[in-house]
Design goal:
By secondary structure, the chain is of the alpha+beta class. It is 36% helix and 22% strand. Strands 1, 2, 3, 4 and 5 form a 5-stranded antiparallel sheet that branches.
């Protein structure tokens, strides 16, 4: 009769393979966790940017004691701060050629995430349009996902 060999334990190679598989799994979990944190920051900053853009649009709409015919000169191409964001906002005002009582106002906010991602076309975050920044929509203006356009009427 032959001798029976007891194979109830694990060899060192089996243990190393199991540790390698676990390491790959945990690395994947950590990467997903980091991406979730980045997406949460992006969502928070996008919400803040839209809120800042809405506030600026409301300021322009009310045009605090500025005559309607001065709104274009006062707010067109004007950079405004974005508290809570590492970025800048800019407002654009266009007169309607067919109706002088109408103004089209666009407010956009660009910012840099902690990860280095720049949201919007303002690559150097100075609020000024430079060559090479007009990439989303070619219109010689800065564009951003956090952008509001509205019409102001002088009644």
């Amino acid at each position: 009769m032959g001798k029976k060999i007891n194979n109830s334990g694990m060899s060192l190679v089996e243990l190393m393979v199991a540790c390698g598989i676990l390491a790959v799994f945990f690395l994947g979990v950590i990467i997903v966790f980091i991406k979730c944190i980045q997406m949460t920051e992006l969502a928070r900053n996008s919400s803040l940017a839209m809120s800042l853009a809405k506030t600026r649009m409301e300021q322009i709409r009310l045009h605090n004691n500025i005559p309607f015919n001065q709104v274009l000169l006062t707010y067109d191409g004007i950079i405004f701060p974005t508290p809570g964001l590492n970025g800048k906002g800019v407002s654009y005002v266009d007169a309607d050629i067919t109706n002088p009582k109408l103004l089209t106002v666009t407010v956009e906010v660009s910012w840099r995430e902690k990860s280095g991602l720049i949201v919007g076309e303002d690559k150097n975050l100075d609020g000024q349009f430079e060559v090479g920044e007009d990439t989303l929509v070619v219109n010689t203006r800065l564009d951003s996902p956090a952008e509001i356009t509205g019409i102001i009427y002088d009644y």
